[in-house]
Amino acid sequence: MAAYQHLYQSGELRRRVEQTRAILESCQICPRHCRANRLAGEPGQCCTGSEAEVSSYGPHFGEEPPLVGRFGSGTIFFTHCNLRCIFCQNYTISQLGEGEVTGDRQLAAMMLSLQASGCHNINLVSPTHVVPQILAALQLAAGAGLSIPLVYNSGGYDSVDTLRLLDGIVDIYMPDMKYSDARVAEELSGIKDYPEFNRAAVKEMHRQVGDLDVDGRGVAQRGLLVRHLVLPRGLAGTEEVARFLAQEVSTNTYLNVMAQYRPCYKAFQQPSLAHALTREEYNEAVSIARKHGLHRLDRREARTLAMFF
Fold it and tell me: Where would I find the beta strands (DSSP E) of the chain?
């Protein structure tokens, strides 16, 4: 049984719905603390008002193997984002707003549909700015029998206060760790305090769910996965990300060192991002992770090399 079912049965999930919903009146859901009155329909810096927007949903077979299993990860792609990454590969969703307003009941129905199709989990993609809406839908879906693990798949710019309200609700956390340098974060994503909040968030996520736990089929049930997209010229700060995970989180952290970078959106405006990642840059990042004792690297590494190089 997924963690949130226990909170649903005790009535605690309903209380969390009310708590997070109240925050929208002067929004502090994410670290931007823009204080927009989203309950009144005022869009925050995430460009989202009182209701979530969804771009698409369905079984996804391109995620990390522990999430995909045999029948896929049940992804729900939320529109908009609290980051402004100039190289975003999903910019039509995150920056241009591709998607439709989705009410709580409709979102709950999506979750139940994904479970009925056999997906191993509900994978919430870019959930940071719509936590209250997700919990309201989850309350409805849990009452209708939703029981598969909940995956919080974020850009990593999350508020620890909000994450604490997700304790006992989220089964699997999958944050990005994008940068180690605040100046790079501000230049490429418009957030100068990304490393500070990101590291605090990852530590809180690990405190809640621990290292990744998989069942006999290799399917994730609970725990932390981290994604780190390697950027050209070492801009992602892989050395410090690996050191942090090994020394302050766990050497058993499941880490996906990602080679998928290619220039997208506004990346060509930044000379250091205007070319694709090289094989040497990627291999160096993987070596750094291993040097720091991180050994649970995503097993698609060989396939990734063949696909992108």
Answer: 52-60, 73-78, 100-102, 122-125, 150-154, 172-175, 213-214, 220-229, 254-258, 296-297
Query: Among the residues of 90-192, which ranges form H helices?
Result: 91-94, 104-116, 131-143, 160-165, 182-189
Q: Which residue, 186, 167, 163, is CA-closest to 175?
A: 163
Do 285 and 298 form a contact (C-beta atoms < 8 A)? no
- Largest distance between two CA atoms of the chain: 54
State how far the Cα of 266 lies from the Cα of 135, in Å rounded to an integer: 33
Structure tokens at 39: 């309950």
Mean pLDDT of each 10-residue bin along the chain, 309 residues long = 94 98 97 96 95 98 97 98 96 96 98 98 98 98 98 98 98 98 96 96 98 97 98 97 98 97 94 94 97 92 54
Domain count, the chain: 1
CA 91 to CA 264: how far, in whole Å? Answer: 8
Instruction: Residue 185: give its domain's CATH number.
Output: 3.20.20.70
Q: What is the DSSP string of 218-248?
A: S-EEEEEEEEEE--GGGTT-HHHHHHHIIII
Structural domain that includes position 255: 3-308
Calpha distance 298→255 (Å, rounded): 6
Tokens matching residue 56: 């698409």
CB atoms within 10 A of CB 266: 16
CB of 172 within 8 A of CB of 60? Answer: no
